[in-house]
Amino acid sequence: MSGATELLENNRQWADRVAANEPEFFARLAAQQSPTYLWIGCSDSRVPANQVVDLLPGEVFVHRNVGNVVVHDDLNCLSVLQYAVEVLGVRHVLVVGHYGCGGVRAAWDGRPLGLIDNWLRHIKDALAPHHAALEAIASEEERLDRLAELNVLAQVTHVCRTTIVQDAWRRGQQLSVHGWIYGLRDGRLRDLGLTCTGPGSIESAHRDAVARILADG
Fold first, then answer.
1. Per-residue pLDDT reduced to its tens digit, 37-49
2. Which SS3 state, helix, strand or coil, does residue 209 take?
3. Most buried of 20, 58, 192, 200 (most Cβ within 10 A)?
């Protein structure tokens, strides 16, 4: 057995184990999903959302793309965000990047890669205001770490500026947007110090978080 067929066997064994340990699990899962969290993360296969936060299927609603990017003309991401906020009623939106992100590195390096260059443009635009400060960081590893962090902060502000989140806050819905980053080397999530709970806090909170990150670098 090899290739994709192996995954079907893995699935069978997993489903049997879960059903044996918790007979009502799949019936409960099929009846309803009521997650508290929306995870907007990178497509990188090394960052599985549920596993990283040790939650079961049905407890985290997930959207992933290269570089954990949120842009206002991406109907896929916006549809996920709207469904999570307005239908599922999530209380927390987690924008989660990760160290060692290939998309962030490619956006900084600027080498032509083809179609994906159009997508990476969004990351380049987010990092452009900090270019001089990033160039001043001697260590390439540290610079890339700061790049990944700053990209998360930019995407948090993009989430907060969507009409979806703005409307939720306007009607008094309890909703927080957080910026986190994941370490591949140690498996730990780090809070980047940017959490927005209403429209009045976005710009100042973003400036403060950026200043802290660049000072650490």
1. 999 999 999 999 9
2. helix
3. 192
The residue range of the domain holding 2 is 1-32
Buried b / exposed e across 169-202, counting CB within 10 Å, b at 16+?
beeeeebebbbbbbeeeeeebbebebbbebeeeb
Beta strands in the chain (DSSP E): 37-42, 60-65, 92-98, 176-182, 189-196
What the block records as the tokens of 67 is 């570089």
User: Are 65 and 123 within one domain?
Assistant: yes
CA gap 196, 127 in Å, rounded: 20
CATH code, domain with 166: 3.40.1050.10
Shortest CA distance to 97 belongs to which of 62, 139, 145, 131?
145
Cα-atom radius of gyration of the chain, to the nearest Å? 19
pTM of the model as a whole? 0.93
Do 105 and 27 reside in the same domain of the chain?
no
